């Protein structure tokens, strides 16, 4: 089975383990089974609004066995960057929630609330409580010379009610005012992945996420294997059109497929086959010539065919059912 090839799992949270306040069906059972089979489990998240223990407590509420030490967050990765860039006890303006504030405070920095306090750094992460005044103070401090670190650039977050603006949106507001971008610590940037390997003492994890531009791109950039699940943000259409640095090694419906053998992709006369599915390139058309085009194996075959065709997806006519 697929899981056998790895010593551990690095799981994104939103869209992989839960959505809003509800666990994704089957996720808890799959994670507990993987853990029972001796795999280390880490949760790698760009969410910087809560402490690791608060996140672990939520996961335990779903029925998972997890402690704060198994949470790898962008808040800690960002705070570590600060520790490398500014002297101990420096003044830092924190724009974000309790999780980010606690990580910065734990490293001995002095937390301030206003640009008038002359902070030498601004560190920014998502929190529902962040408002215009917080963003304005960040902009003022950055314009006065403070360095700027952000936990992540996620434009959206998946919630029970739908897709909501994420930290990238808030960072974008400050960027518009100051005309520069911060250094990022979270996915898809490397610091958080290096932290995960060190924190969990693992060698060959499978990174599982629902976003191509953060989870998958980050894993590839860190030299790690990746899988994309279809329980969160990523859509079939997005997968088919994935950029070369955002293409997962595996496409899974959900975490339960970790316990199955991953199907072999085979080159056919005019396309790619995956078990009973075959997808062909006929001129400029990508068509499913066998089985149901809406099946997951058809998606896997189509993705492989498009990715290896050397042609951008906008130059191809893809059968609509493959994308829906």
Provide a compact summary of the structure:
The protein is α/β, with parallel strands linked by helices and 324 residues long. The protein contains eleven helices and 20 strands.
CATH superfamily of the largest domain: HAD superfamily/HAD-like
Tell me the number of strands. 20
Indicate the overall shape: globular
Give the strand content.
15-25%
The rounded Rg comes to 21 Å
Termini separation:
28 Å
Task: Order the strands across the largest sheet as they lie in space.
Answer: 5-4-1-13-14-15
Q: What is the CATH architecture annotation of the largest domain?
A: 3-Layer(aba) Sandwich
Total helical segments: 11
The residue-averaged pLDDT reads: 94
Structural class: alpha/beta
According to CATH, the fold-level topology of the largest domain is Rossmann fold
Kindly provide the name of the CATH class of the largest domain: Alpha Beta
**Domain unit count:** 3
